[in-house]
Specification:
Elements (H helix, E strand, L loop, with lengths): L3 H7 L7 E6 L4 H9 L15 H5 L1 E3 L5 H5 L2 E8 L2 E10 L4 E3 L4 E3 L2 E3 L10 E3 L8 E3 L7 E4 L14 E3 L8 H9 L2 E6 L6 E7 L4 H12 L5 H4 L7 E7 L2 H15 L10
Parallel strand pairs: 1-3
Antiparallel strand pairs: 1-9, 2-6, 3-4, 4-7, 4-8, 5-6, 8-10, 11-14, 12-13, 12-14
Helix pairs in contact: 5-6
Protein backbone atom coordinates (compact mmCIF):
# COMPACT_ATOMS: atom_id res chain seq x y z
CA UNK A 1 0.00 0.00 0.00
CA UNK A 2 1.36 3.39 -0.99
CA UNK A 3 1.41 5.91 1.85
CA UNK A 4 2.08 9.64 1.94
CA UNK A 5 5.21 9.15 4.06
CA UNK A 6 6.68 6.96 1.32
CA UNK A 7 6.22 9.86 -1.11
CA UNK A 8 7.77 12.30 1.37
CA UNK A 9 10.87 10.13 1.66
CA UNK A 10 11.11 9.73 -2.11
CA UNK A 11 11.34 13.52 -2.34
CA UNK A 12 13.99 13.72 0.37
CA UNK A 13 11.81 14.76 3.31
CA UNK A 14 11.96 13.07 6.70
CA UNK A 15 8.39 12.65 8.08
CA UNK A 16 9.78 13.63 11.49
CA UNK A 17 10.32 17.13 10.07
CA UNK A 18 6.84 17.44 8.57
CA UNK A 19 3.53 18.67 9.98
CA UNK A 20 0.39 17.60 8.10
CA UNK A 21 -2.26 20.36 7.95
CA UNK A 22 -5.73 19.83 6.50
CA UNK A 23 -7.79 22.91 5.62
CA UNK A 24 -11.55 22.67 5.61
CA UNK A 25 -13.28 22.29 2.26
CA UNK A 26 -16.79 22.79 3.64
CA UNK A 27 -17.09 26.05 1.74
CA UNK A 28 -15.97 26.76 -1.81
CA UNK A 29 -13.99 29.90 -0.92
CA UNK A 30 -11.14 28.00 0.72
CA UNK A 31 -10.50 26.07 -2.48
CA UNK A 32 -10.93 29.11 -4.71
CA UNK A 33 -8.49 31.05 -2.53
CA UNK A 34 -5.85 28.36 -2.94
CA UNK A 35 -6.45 27.99 -6.67
CA UNK A 36 -6.41 31.73 -7.47
CA UNK A 37 -4.52 33.20 -4.46
CA UNK A 38 -7.08 36.01 -4.39
CA UNK A 39 -8.15 37.60 -1.06
CA UNK A 40 -11.53 35.93 -0.56
CA UNK A 41 -11.27 34.19 2.83
CA UNK A 42 -12.88 35.96 5.79
CA UNK A 43 -12.25 34.71 9.33
CA UNK A 44 -12.11 35.96 12.91
CA UNK A 45 -8.34 36.32 12.94
CA UNK A 46 -8.26 39.04 10.29
CA UNK A 47 -10.35 42.21 9.80
CA UNK A 48 -9.99 42.01 5.99
CA UNK A 49 -10.28 39.20 3.41
CA UNK A 50 -7.11 37.15 3.01
CA UNK A 51 -5.42 35.06 0.34
CA UNK A 52 -4.90 31.38 1.03
CA UNK A 53 -1.22 32.02 1.81
CA UNK A 54 -2.14 34.66 4.40
CA UNK A 55 -4.92 32.55 5.88
CA UNK A 56 -2.73 29.48 6.32
CA UNK A 57 -0.08 31.44 8.22
CA UNK A 58 -2.61 32.67 10.82
CA UNK A 59 -3.76 29.93 13.18
CA UNK A 60 -5.41 29.60 16.58
CA UNK A 61 -2.78 29.49 19.28
CA UNK A 62 -4.59 26.83 21.30
CA UNK A 63 -4.28 24.40 18.39
CA UNK A 64 -0.52 24.77 17.89
CA UNK A 65 1.75 23.65 20.71
CA UNK A 66 5.51 24.08 20.79
CA UNK A 67 6.16 20.75 19.08
CA UNK A 68 3.94 21.58 16.11
CA UNK A 69 5.51 25.00 15.73
CA UNK A 70 8.96 23.41 15.65
CA UNK A 71 8.30 21.36 12.52
CA UNK A 72 10.41 22.56 9.61
CA UNK A 73 7.93 21.73 6.85
CA UNK A 74 4.17 21.72 6.41
CA UNK A 75 2.46 19.36 4.00
CA UNK A 76 -0.82 21.16 3.32
CA UNK A 77 -4.06 19.53 2.26
CA UNK A 78 -7.50 20.75 1.24
CA UNK A 79 -10.71 18.98 2.18
CA UNK A 80 -12.96 18.18 -0.78
CA UNK A 81 -16.10 16.86 0.94
CA UNK A 82 -15.03 13.40 2.16
CA UNK A 83 -11.68 13.51 0.36
CA UNK A 84 -8.35 15.10 1.23
CA UNK A 85 -6.22 16.64 -1.53
CA UNK A 86 -2.51 17.49 -1.27
CA UNK A 87 -1.82 21.13 -2.22
CA UNK A 88 1.82 21.78 -1.42
CA UNK A 89 4.92 21.59 0.76
CA UNK A 90 5.63 24.77 2.75
CA UNK A 91 8.80 25.62 4.66
CA UNK A 92 8.80 27.55 7.94
CA UNK A 93 11.07 30.56 7.40
CA UNK A 94 10.94 32.21 10.82
CA UNK A 95 9.65 32.07 14.35
CA UNK A 96 5.96 32.38 15.19
CA UNK A 97 4.61 35.69 16.48
CA UNK A 98 1.58 35.98 18.72
CA UNK A 99 -1.52 38.19 18.72
CA UNK A 100 -2.91 37.68 22.26
CA UNK A 101 -5.96 39.87 21.68
CA UNK A 102 -7.10 37.62 18.82
CA UNK A 103 -5.83 34.37 20.29
CA UNK A 104 -3.87 33.76 17.10
CA UNK A 105 -0.32 33.12 16.05
CA UNK A 106 1.40 33.99 12.79
CA UNK A 107 3.70 31.33 11.32
CA UNK A 108 5.83 32.60 8.40
CA UNK A 109 5.71 30.00 5.63
CA UNK A 110 7.02 29.79 2.08
CA UNK A 111 5.79 27.50 -0.67
CA UNK A 112 8.57 25.22 -1.93
CA UNK A 113 9.06 23.39 -5.22
CA UNK A 114 9.17 20.05 -3.43
CA UNK A 115 6.46 17.74 -4.83
CA UNK A 116 5.21 20.62 -6.99
CA UNK A 117 4.15 18.18 -9.70
CA UNK A 118 1.81 16.42 -7.27
CA UNK A 119 -0.16 19.46 -6.13
CA UNK A 120 -3.87 18.87 -6.64
CA UNK A 121 -3.25 15.29 -7.78
CA UNK A 122 -2.64 13.24 -4.61
CA UNK A 123 -5.58 12.27 -2.39
CA UNK A 124 -5.05 10.61 0.99
CA UNK A 125 -7.20 8.95 3.64
CA UNK A 126 -7.70 11.31 6.59
CA UNK A 127 -9.40 9.49 9.44
CA UNK A 128 -10.60 12.47 11.49
CA UNK A 129 -11.29 15.99 10.25
CA UNK A 130 -11.32 17.13 13.88
CA UNK A 131 -7.58 16.43 14.18
CA UNK A 132 -6.50 18.62 11.28
CA UNK A 133 -2.89 19.30 12.33
CA UNK A 134 -0.90 16.09 12.70
CA UNK A 135 2.69 14.87 12.92
CA UNK A 136 3.60 13.02 9.72
CA UNK A 137 5.83 10.45 11.45
CA UNK A 138 2.96 9.24 13.65
CA UNK A 139 0.18 9.58 11.04
CA UNK A 140 1.07 7.62 7.92
CA UNK A 141 -1.93 8.30 5.67
CA UNK A 142 -2.75 5.90 2.85
CA UNK A 143 -2.78 7.34 -0.67
CA UNK A 144 -6.23 6.84 -2.21
CA UNK A 145 -5.51 8.20 -5.66
CA UNK A 146 -3.01 10.05 -7.80
CA UNK A 147 -5.16 11.92 -10.30
CA UNK A 148 -4.80 12.38 -14.04
CA UNK A 149 -2.42 14.95 -15.44
CA UNK A 150 -3.94 18.38 -14.76
CA UNK A 151 -2.66 19.52 -18.16
CA UNK A 152 -5.09 17.24 -19.99
CA UNK A 153 -7.28 19.32 -22.32
CA UNK A 154 -10.98 19.67 -21.63
CA UNK A 155 -12.63 16.62 -23.27
CA UNK A 156 -15.60 18.56 -24.64
CA UNK A 157 -19.05 18.91 -23.16
CA UNK A 158 -20.38 15.65 -24.65
CA UNK A 159 -17.72 13.54 -22.88
CA UNK A 160 -17.51 15.44 -19.60
CA UNK A 161 -18.83 13.96 -16.35
CA UNK A 162 -17.91 14.44 -12.69
CA UNK A 163 -19.23 13.88 -9.21
CA UNK A 164 -20.18 17.02 -7.30
CA UNK A 165 -17.25 16.73 -4.82
CA UNK A 166 -14.72 16.34 -7.65
CA UNK A 167 -15.73 19.67 -9.21
CA UNK A 168 -13.38 21.38 -6.77
CA UNK A 169 -10.37 19.54 -8.16
CA UNK A 170 -10.88 20.14 -11.89
CA UNK A 171 -8.07 21.85 -13.83
CA UNK A 172 -8.47 25.58 -14.43
CA UNK A 173 -9.08 25.24 -18.18
CA UNK A 174 -11.84 22.71 -17.53
CA UNK A 175 -13.45 25.04 -14.98
CA UNK A 176 -13.22 27.96 -17.41
CA UNK A 177 -14.90 25.94 -20.16
CA UNK A 178 -17.75 24.86 -17.86
CA UNK A 179 -18.21 28.45 -16.69
CA UNK A 180 -18.60 29.70 -20.26
CA UNK A 181 -21.16 27.07 -21.30
CA UNK A 182 -24.92 27.18 -20.64
CA UNK A 183 -27.60 24.65 -21.40
CA UNK A 184 -29.27 21.51 -20.03
CA UNK A 185 -27.64 19.18 -17.51
CA UNK A 186 -28.41 15.88 -15.78
CA UNK A 187 -27.83 14.78 -12.19
CA UNK A 188 -27.53 10.99 -11.87
CA UNK A 189 -27.39 8.76 -8.81
CA UNK A 190 -23.72 7.85 -8.17
CA UNK A 191 -24.60 4.26 -7.20
CA UNK A 192 -27.41 3.23 -9.53
CA UNK A 193 -26.48 5.66 -12.37
CA UNK A 194 -30.20 6.35 -12.82
CA UNK A 195 -31.21 9.84 -14.02
CA UNK A 196 -32.56 11.84 -11.09
CA UNK A 197 -32.89 15.47 -12.17
CA UNK A 198 -32.80 17.51 -15.37
CA UNK A 199 -32.08 21.23 -15.04
CA UNK A 200 -30.86 24.25 -16.91
CA UNK A 201 -27.83 26.45 -16.33
CA UNK A 202 -28.56 29.89 -17.71
CA UNK A 203 -27.12 32.35 -15.20
CA UNK A 204 -23.74 33.73 -14.19
CA UNK A 205 -21.13 31.00 -13.94
CA UNK A 206 -22.67 28.64 -16.48
CA UNK A 207 -22.79 24.93 -15.71
CA UNK A 208 -20.02 25.13 -13.13
CA UNK A 209 -21.72 27.90 -11.16
CA UNK A 210 -24.98 25.96 -11.02
CA UNK A 211 -23.33 22.68 -10.01
CA UNK A 212 -21.23 24.33 -7.32
CA UNK A 213 -24.47 25.53 -5.75
CA UNK A 214 -25.53 21.88 -5.41
CA UNK A 215 -22.12 21.02 -3.94
CA UNK A 216 -22.34 23.87 -1.45
CA UNK A 217 -25.96 23.44 -0.26
CA UNK A 218 -26.67 19.79 -1.03
CA UNK A 219 -29.86 20.67 -2.91
CA UNK A 220 -29.33 23.79 -5.06
CA UNK A 221 -32.76 25.05 -4.07
CA UNK A 222 -34.51 21.95 -5.42
CA UNK A 223 -37.60 21.17 -3.31
CA UNK A 224 -37.42 17.38 -3.68
CA UNK A 225 -33.70 17.22 -2.86
CA UNK A 226 -34.25 19.15 0.36
CA UNK A 227 -36.33 16.23 1.59
CA UNK A 228 -33.56 13.67 0.94
CA UNK A 229 -30.12 12.95 2.45
CA UNK A 230 -27.24 14.71 0.73
CA UNK A 231 -25.98 12.85 -2.35
CA UNK A 232 -22.80 13.15 -4.43
CA UNK A 233 -24.63 13.25 -7.76
CA UNK A 234 -22.86 12.68 -11.06
CA UNK A 235 -23.23 15.68 -13.37
CA UNK A 236 -23.07 15.76 -17.14
CA UNK A 237 -24.24 18.01 -19.95
CA UNK A 238 -27.15 16.90 -22.11
CA UNK A 239 -27.28 19.85 -24.48
CA UNK A 240 -25.91 23.36 -24.79
CA UNK A 241 -28.01 26.35 -25.78
CA UNK A 242 -28.96 29.96 -25.12
CA UNK A 243 -31.60 31.49 -22.86
CA UNK A 244 -34.46 31.69 -25.36
CA UNK A 245 -34.49 27.96 -26.08
CA UNK A 246 -33.60 26.36 -22.75
CA UNK A 247 -37.10 25.83 -21.34
CA UNK A 248 -38.16 23.91 -24.42
CA UNK A 249 -35.00 21.80 -24.38
CA UNK A 250 -35.33 21.15 -20.64
CA UNK A 251 -38.95 19.94 -21.02
CA UNK A 252 -37.95 17.59 -23.84
CA UNK A 253 -35.16 15.99 -21.78
CA UNK A 254 -37.44 15.61 -18.73
CA UNK A 255 -39.83 13.65 -20.92
CA UNK A 256 -37.09 11.52 -22.51
CA UNK A 257 -35.52 10.60 -19.14
CA UNK A 258 -38.83 10.50 -17.19
CA UNK A 259 -37.40 12.58 -14.35
CA UNK A 260 -40.80 14.11 -13.60
CA UNK A 261 -42.41 10.73 -13.03
CA UNK A 262 -39.43 8.76 -11.67
CA UNK A 263 -36.93 11.39 -10.60
CA UNK A 264 -36.70 14.64 -8.65
CA UNK A 265 -38.22 17.13 -11.12
CA UNK A 266 -41.44 18.63 -9.80
CA UNK A 267 -42.47 20.81 -12.74
Amino acid sequence: MLTFNVILREYGLDPADVLLVRHSGRHIKSYDAWRTNLPVIIHSGSPTPETFEQYQQTQQEKVFGTKKLSRKYWASFMGARDRTMFIGIYKRIGDASRSPSLGCIHIPLELTDVMAGLRGKVFVTWASEIVWAQFADSNNHAVEEIRRDLNNPFPGWRKFSSSLPELETLPDDWRNALTDLTGIYLLSDPDTKEPRYVGQADGHGGFLGRWEEYARTGHGGNVAMKELPRNDYIVRILEIGSDDELFQKESRWKEILATNALGLNRN
